[in-house]
Task: inverse folding
């Protein structure tokens, strides 16, 4: 959708580390540390691809795979701003009724059918509605 509507669709990612996944918080911290080196999406995608085998060793492997400066990455993981960011995202998610990941919203409305066809139809409906208001 971002490719089809590059000026009209904005993707917002929020962290919601789920308590029953023992590496979800570490993964969120790592992804935001990677973002400080402009590698968030590469790191994010690698984390999700490997979600069922995450470990400290796997995270270090991903750090090397995406080409991060390891010393900077380790320093950023300790930055309190990262944990504050995650806490804010998590609290916002709780207020919106998020209970798991991924959860998708389109213009503040939760999407239950996350098929690409349905999401495309919802986005196009929103874009038409917005065009009608202009």
Result:
């Amino acid at each position: 959708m971002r490719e089809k509507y590059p000026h009209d669709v904005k993707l917002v990612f929020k962290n919601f580390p789920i308590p029953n996944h023992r590496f979800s918080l570490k993964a969120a911290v790592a992804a935001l540390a990677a973002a400080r080196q402009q590698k968030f999406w590469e790191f994010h995608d690698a984390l999700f691809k490997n979600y069922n085998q995450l470990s400290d060793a796997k995270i270090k492997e991903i750090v090397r795979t995406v080409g991060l400066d390891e010393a900077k990455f380790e320093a950023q993981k300790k930055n309190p701003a990262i944990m504050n960011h995650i806490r804010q995202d998590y609290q916002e998610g709780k207020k919106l009724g998020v209970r798991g990941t991924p959860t998708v919203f389109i213009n503040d409305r939760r999407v239950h059918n996350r098929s690409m066809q349905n999401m495309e139809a919802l986005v196009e409906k929103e874009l038409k509605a917005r065009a009608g208001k202009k």
About this structure: The longest strand covers residues 104-106. Strands lie at 104-106, 109-111. The longest helix spans residues 116-133.
